[in-house]
Amino acid sequence: MRSVTNAVGPSTSFLIGGGILPSLIGYMGETWSFSAGIVLTGCFMTAGPALIFFLKLGHYDNETGC
């Protein structure tokens, strides 16, 4: 499971950071204002570390192998 996360995580972050968020800021700039898009992006970035506390990680025995 760790290798899947290591494979999917960086590509997803490049997709979001290089494509979706700049498009969101541009769309907000056309419809409302650029500052609203930047504030919304900052809210997403601030919410990320806060949401980590709600993750439920499974309990795995270290003796069972990789």
Can you characterise this structure?
The N and C termini lie close together (9 Å). Helix 1 runs antiparallel to helix 2. The chain contains 2 helices and no strands. With 66 residues, it is mainly alpha-helical. The chain is elongated and about 50 Å long. The protein has one domain. The relative contact order is 0.07.
Oligomer: single chain
Provide the domain count: 1
The computed structural class is mainly alpha
Number of strands: 0
* Rg over alpha carbons: 17 Å
Beta-strand content bin: under 5%
Question: Strand-and-helix sequence, N→C?
Answer: HH
Profile the largest sheet.
none
Helix content class: over 70%
Summed up, the helix count is: 2
Roughly how many Å apart are the termini? Answer: 9 Å
Which outline best applies?
elongated
Poorly predicted runs are: none
Q: Could you report the average pLDDT, rounded to the nearest whole number?
A: 86
